[in-house]
Amino acid sequence: MQAPTVDLVEISPLLEQAHGESDLIPVLQKVQDHYGYIPPEAVEPIARSVKVFPSKVQGVITFYSQFYTEPRGRNIVTVCRGTACHVRGGRGVLRVVQKALNLKDGETSPDYQFTLETVACLGACALAPVMVVNGKVYGRMNPKRIENVLAMYQKQES
Ligand code: FES
């Protein structure tokens, strides 16, 4: 499947609200909220709107890990690699999710349905092992629960 198309006209109202360099990070956040990532073709218009060189915009995007430069899946699956989860079988959770989605850590499915990520701790250690889908926390995961949770998101797409 093709990457989602980018229509820069959609972000012109928010770029027009920018006044200067101090607006750079808020503008990048809004652009990412809109597209799910920062499309490369948006870098120049963003630079113009906050009155800096495109290289400065690119530098900020590269510096902050929360900015993405490639399209991500409509569903973001995050599996915890933290210690509490690890001792309760977190590695097995990751293995099952990887197999079910046919993705490795950091990958997005070709149909942009899922992106798989891992993090050091999701802040819900009491529920270990934990995974999060689109911001919703699922605790005490086991292979059956993983299958059920992923099936809910797969169903929503069809
Ligand atoms: S270690 Fe997994 S939620 Fe904290």
Question: Your description of this structure?
Answer:
The protein is of the alpha+beta class. Helix content is 42%, strand content 11%. It contains seven helices and four strands. The protein has helices spanning 12-16, 24-35, 43-50, 54-63, 83-87, 90-101, 143-157, and strands at residues 75-80, 114-119, 131-133, 136-138. The chain has a four-stranded mixed β-sheet with strand order 2-1-3-4, with helices on one face. Helix 3 packs across helix 4 (54-63) and helix 6 runs parallel beside helix 7. The relative contact order is 0.13. The structure holds FE2/S2 (inorganic) cluster (FES). FE2/S2 (inorganic) cluster binds next to helix 5.
In terms of per-residue confidence, which ranges show pLDDT below 50 for 5 or more consecutive residues? none
Any idea what the radius of gyration is?
A: 18 Å
Largest sheet: 4 strands, mixed
- Give the SSE order as H and E letters: HHHHEHHEEEH
What coarse outline follows from CA principal-axis ratios? elongated
Bound ligand species: FE2/S2 (inorganic) cluster
Output the number of helix runs: 7
Strand order of the largest sheet: 2-1-3-4
Distance between the termini: 15 Å
Helix percent reads 40-55%
Q: What's the β-strand tally?
A: 4
Mean pLDDT: 93
Question: Which class do the helix and strand fractions yield?
Answer: alpha+beta
Measured by DSSP, the beta-strand proportion falls in 5-15%
